[in-house]
Amino acid sequence: MRFGILKELTEKRVAITPDFVKKLVAQKHEVVFEKGCGEGAALVDELFVAEGAKAADRAEVLAAADVITTIIPLPESDLDQVKKGAVLISQFQPFADDSICEKLASKGLTALSMDMIPRSTIAQAMDVLSSMASIAGYKAVLTAADHLPRYMPMLSTAAGTIRPAKMLVLGAGVAGLQAIATGRRLGAMVEAFDTRAAAKEEVMSLGAKFVEVEGASDDKAAGGYAVEQTEEYKQRQADLIFQKVSKADIVITTAQLRGRPAPLLVNEEMLKAMPQGAVLIDLAASTGGNVAFSKHREVVKTHGVTIVGNSELADEVPEHASQLFSRNVENFLKHKDFLSEEGFSFDFEEDIFGSACIVYNGEVRFGAPALTK
Ligand code: NAD
C-alpha cells in the first residue's frame, strides 16, 4: 500500500515520523510525503528520504496515497482530491462533529478515528488522547510560568523569602495529573479537583492536595469519562472552587465531557476575586472552555488576570508529540496484524478496530453497537 504523509495545515506536528517510515518500507509499503511536512517538528525532508520515503507536492500525495494519516482531519478541499476507497487515519472526533461521518462516507472513503479507540489497558500503547493530553498538561504549566509575573518555587534569598506559587488544577485526568507533576517539580503548592472519585488517590500520590466535594455522580458505564453532575452538586462545587480560585496564582483547567460542551468551572465572579497577575490555562477552550472569556488559541487579559485558551498545547512540543502520535498509530496498525504486506484486515468484531473504524468504504459505521458500548 502507498502511505501519504501531509504537512498539517494548522500544526507543527506531523502524524508519521521517519522511524515509522522505516518500518512501513521494511513491510514492503511505499511512503510519499509532502515536502516540508516535518519541518515544524525538527524533522527535515532528508530524514524521511533516508528511510525510503519519496518527496512530493501536496496534490500528488493526496491523489496517490492509499492511506493518509493526519493529526487534524483533512479539510473538505483536500478530501475532494483523495482517491476513492482510500483509508484516512486521524482524530475525527465524531462525537463532537456529527457531520464528519456523512462527509467521509459521501466520498467513498474509509476512516479510522484514533480518538475512538477504547481507553482500555490493552489499548494504552495506541492512545493518542493520552499521549497528547500528557504533553499538554506539562506545557500548560510552562506556559503559565511564562505569563506569571512571579516565581513558582519558594526561594530564600539574601533580600528575603519568596513564597511558592499556589496552583489549582481542575480536572485530574491525564493532562491534569501531568500538570500536577510538572507544577510540583517547579516548586508550586498544588491542589486539584475532579468529579471522579478515582482521581483522589492519583492526585495524592503525586503529592498534591485533593479538593473534595461530596456527592459526585460517577458512572462506571461511561468508560472512565466524567458524567454530567446534578445542579445541587454543581453549586457546592462552585462555592468550593470560588474559595480555592480566589487564592490561586495559577489555575489549569482540563475538564471535558465527551460529545458535550465543557463545563464552566471558573466564572467572571471568580476571576474578579483572583490575585492580580494570576494566570489561567484552559485546555478545554476548543469545546467551550472551563473559564469565562477563554478563547481557543487566544490570550485574553481581563480583571487583572491572563487567560490562555488552548486545547492543542501538545503542538508546542512538536517533536515529541509527533513521535508519540506516530508510535500510537504504529501500535494500532500492528495490533492483531491489522496491517500486513497485503493491506488491512477489517475485523469489525475486534473491539479496538471496530471502535476506530467510523466509516468503511463509504458506509457510516459510527453508532454501530461495537462503537457505542
Ligand atoms: P478528559 O480529557 O475527558 O477529562 C479531563 C478530566 O476532567 C477528567 O479526569 C474528568 O473526570 C474531569 N472532569 C470532567 N468534568 C469535570 C468537572 N465538572 N469538574 C472537575 N473535573 C471534571 O479525561 P482523560 O484525561 O482523557 O481521561 C478520561 C478517563 O480515561 C480517565 O478516567 C482516565 O483515567 C481514563 N484513562 C484510561 C486509560 C487506560 O487505562 N488506557 C488511559 C487514559 C485515560
Automatic annotation (TrEMBL):
<protein>
    <recommendedName>
        <fullName>proton-translocating NAD(P)(+) transhydrogenase</fullName>
        <ecNumber>7.1.1.1</ecNumber>
    </recommendedName>
</protein>
<comment type="similarity">
    <text>Belongs to the AlaDH/PNT family.</text>
</comment>
<dbReference type="InterPro" id="IPR007698">
    <property type="entry name" value="AlaDH/PNT_NAD(H)-bd"/>
</dbReference>
<keyword id="KW-0547">Nucleotide-binding</keyword>
<dbReference type="InterPro" id="IPR036291">
    <property type="entry name" value="NAD(P)-bd_dom_sf"/>
</dbReference>
<feature type="domain" description="Alanine dehydrogenase/pyridine nucleotide transhydrogenase N-terminal">
    <location>
        <begin position="4"/>
        <end position="136"/>
    </location>
</feature>
<dbReference type="InterPro" id="IPR008143">
    <property type="entry name" value="Ala_DH/PNT_CS2"/>
</dbReference>
<comment type="function">
    <text>The transhydrogenation between NADH and NADP is coupled to respiration and ATP hydrolysis and functions as a proton pump across the membrane.</text>
</comment>
<feature type="domain" description="Alanine dehydrogenase/pyridine nucleotide transhydrogenase NAD(H)-binding">
    <location>
        <begin position="145"/>
        <end position="309"/>
    </location>
</feature>
<dbReference type="Pfam" id="PF01262">
    <property type="entry name" value="AlaDh_PNT_C"/>
</dbReference>
<keyword id="KW-0521">NADP</keyword>
<dbReference type="InterPro" id="IPR007886">
    <property type="entry name" value="AlaDH/PNT_N"/>
</dbReference>
<keyword id="KW-0520">NAD</keyword>
<keyword id="KW-1278">Translocase</keyword>
<dbReference type="Pfam" id="PF05222">
    <property type="entry name" value="AlaDh_PNT_N"/>
</dbReference>
